[in-house]
Amino acid sequence: MIIIYEIGIIVNVSFDKTAVYRYNVRCNYSYIAGGFMNRPISFLIVIAVYILAAALGILVFILLKPFINNVIILTFIANICATLVVWVFGVIFKNSSMYDPYWSVQPLVIISAWLVINGQPLRFGDMLMLICIGFWAIRLTYNWASGFMGLTKTQDWRYTMLREKNPKLFFVTNLFGINLMPTVLVYLGTVPLYFAIFGNSSFNAFTSLGLLTMVIATMIQLIADKQMKDFRRDSENAQKVMDRGLWAYSRHPNYLGEIVFWWGVYVFSFSNLNTPWYSFVGAVLIALLFLFISIPMIEKKLLKTRSGYEEYKQRVSMLLLLPPKKSKSPAQD
User: Which residue in 79, 115, 205, 272 could disulfide with 201, CB within 3.0 to 4.6 Å?
Assistant: First the structure.
């Protein structure tokens, strides 16, 4: 039997004793090459979807430009349209994690577009900012990609939980909660850089502090994720609590790095001293997202699945990297 694999299609070709070929063609979106081709094909599908989303966003920007003279509003509308493309394909493939890399891809695309639209020679500060954003974006996208086993195998457990918890509302939850809300928050977090790019910016103390903050924040995430992956590779740690490295000082050092990164973006924007002070709203909302949604959700799960997590929770700081408290001995209890 010869099996020829196409995207979403399996062709079975068999040869019987009468030397007659029989062709059995069937569509199959849940099984591609026994899983062997599933991951690379899934990556190609995600890349194609994101290229299509970017193309639509650019088209919307161009078509609306004669009617809307505000680049921030134009970019926002284009960004929402691109998000809707990703959402639609997430629905088609029944996997809301189609959206996951959008968080890290969005800022790099938007900032690059703004630098092109500005039409001015690239300043030294802008180049360093672009490198820092690129470093953050590549690290976060790689972190997603390394755990992505395919559209039929990998979906964030939180999305699955939300679907199972209230299937009738999942359409709304998926569209607004999983796709549009993060897009809006990340966009608001990126907006301060608009003022740095289009304004009268100079390389000042805020430039240096912002760049340094972004690099340190990304390094915290990089180290924390590496430590967690190394911990998970050991099968003996399957039901254990990760309390080593940065995780001995913070229960969520990766989230700490993400929150600090966006404050670095805000600080950098004061390369232009006329940046509106209230543009910190994006950094605030992103921090609130992690503090009141992401962290409580994952800790609720860990308290159910890790027997030692309650003790770890009492001993280690939730977010900030602080010295752990001493465990209480049985005699003290």
Answer: 272
Contacts of 119 (CB under 8 A, 6+ apart): none
Q: From the CB of residue 289, how many other CB atoms can be counted at a distance below 10 Å?
A: 18
Let me know: does 194 contact 72? Beta carbons within 8 Å: yes
Q: Which residues contact 37 (CB under 8 A, 6 or more apart)?
A: 5
Three-state SS at 47: helix
By three-state DSSP, how is residue 21 classified? strand
Whole-angstrom distance, CA of residue 193 vs CA of residue 236? 45
pTM, whole model, 2 decimals? 0.87
Q: From the centroid of its chain, how far is CA 189?
A: 14
Q: How confident is the model at residue 21 (pLDDT cuts 50, 70, 90)?
A: very low
> Domains in the chain, please, with CATH?
1-30 (no CATH), 118-147+191-325 (1.20.120)
150 to 36, 68, 99: CA distances (angstroms): 10, 40, 13
* Rg for the chain, CA atoms, rounded: 23
115 and 109 in contact (C-beta within 8 Å)?
no
What are 113-131's pLDDT values in tens digits?
999 999 999 999 999 999 9
User: What Cα–Cα distance (Å) separates residue 303 from each residue in 146, 311, 317, 318?
Assistant: 26, 10, 16, 14
